[in-house]
Write a structure and sequence with these properties.
The structure holds 2 protein chains of 2 kinds. Chain A is built from no helices and 11 strands. Chain A is an all-beta fold. In chain A, strand 4 and strand 5 form a beta hairpin. In chain A, about 35% of the residues are buried. In chain B, the strands form 3 sheets. In chain B, strands 2, 5, 6, 9, 10 and 11 form a 6-stranded mixed sheet that branches. The termini of chain B are far apart. The chains are: A mainly beta, B mainly beta. At the A-B interface, strand 5 and strand 10 of A face strand 5, strand 6 and strand 10 of B.
Chain lengths: ~120, ~110
């Protein structure tokens, strides 16, 4: 199931560099999400978008920005990467509106290391 | 504050034994709860949600509002159940996640 695709799969970058993580989906879902996962902390929401013109901050948006270029694309940017942004990043989509508790569909994740 | 707690980072049981993965939540409203699972080399995916009252792959989970729990249970574990399990709470259409429990089924 490659309906939600994240690129790159792995990335190593240096402190201060700008980096973009990309997510594209072929599921036709309106809602898209960016999460980060750190060991022992579960997933934390960075940003989410309910449609192309809607962008919302999540729990941990500081240091990140997003762009919803189209229904199918939702990019996450780190303007100036720092080491504590080293984490596993997940993109997810969700059908909406009308089915508020429909399941999230996840990408494979992007493992980002900031040195 | 809304919170989801999975007290066990790791749970190891023998094949055929009962399994219970614990999940406790803190939420002021009427909770909507989910279990997600990530098998080795697969994506994180929904296992079950409490509003559906369903059994998936032999797993069930009952919402206990008195104890604020949503434990995941299976009477007889199978080796293919080995995975990472996450409990999640819907809070204003955003999910709050537990830290996850790694379940290992020993042969």
């Amino acid at each position: 199931d490659a309906d939600v695709t994240q690129t790159p799969r792995n990335r190593i970058t240096k402190t201060g560099k700008r980096i973009m993580l990309e997510c594209s989906q072929t599921k036709g879902h309106d809602r898209m999400y960016w999460y980060r996962q750190d060991p022992g902390l579960g997933l934390r929401l960075i940003y989410y978008s309910f449609d192309v013109k809607d962008i919302n901050k999540g729990e941990i948006s500081d240091g990140y920005s997003v762009s919803r270029q189209a229904q199918a694309k939702f990019s996450l940017s780190l303007e100036s990467a720092i080491p504590n942004q080293t984490a596993l990043y997940f993109c997810a989509t969700q059908l909406g509106p009308g089915d508020l508790n429909s399941p999230l569909h996840f990408g494979n994740g992007t493992r980002l290391t900031v040195t | 504050a809304q919170r989801v707690t999975q007290p066990e980072k790791l749970l190891s049981v023998f094949k055929g034994a009962p399994v219970e993965l614990k999940c406790n939540y803190s939420y002021s409203g009427s909770p909507e709860l989910f279990w997600y699972v990530q098998y080795s080399r697969q994506r994180l995916q929904l296992l079950l949600r409490h509003i559906s009252r369903e059994s998936i792959k032999g797993f069930t989970a009952d919402l206990n509002k008195g104890e604020t729990s949503f434990h995941l249970k299976k009477p007889f574990a199978q080796e293919e159940d080995s995975a990472m399990y996450y409990c999640a709470l819907d809070s204003n259409y955003q999910l709050i996640w537990g830290a996850g429990t790694k379940l290992i089924i020993k042969p």
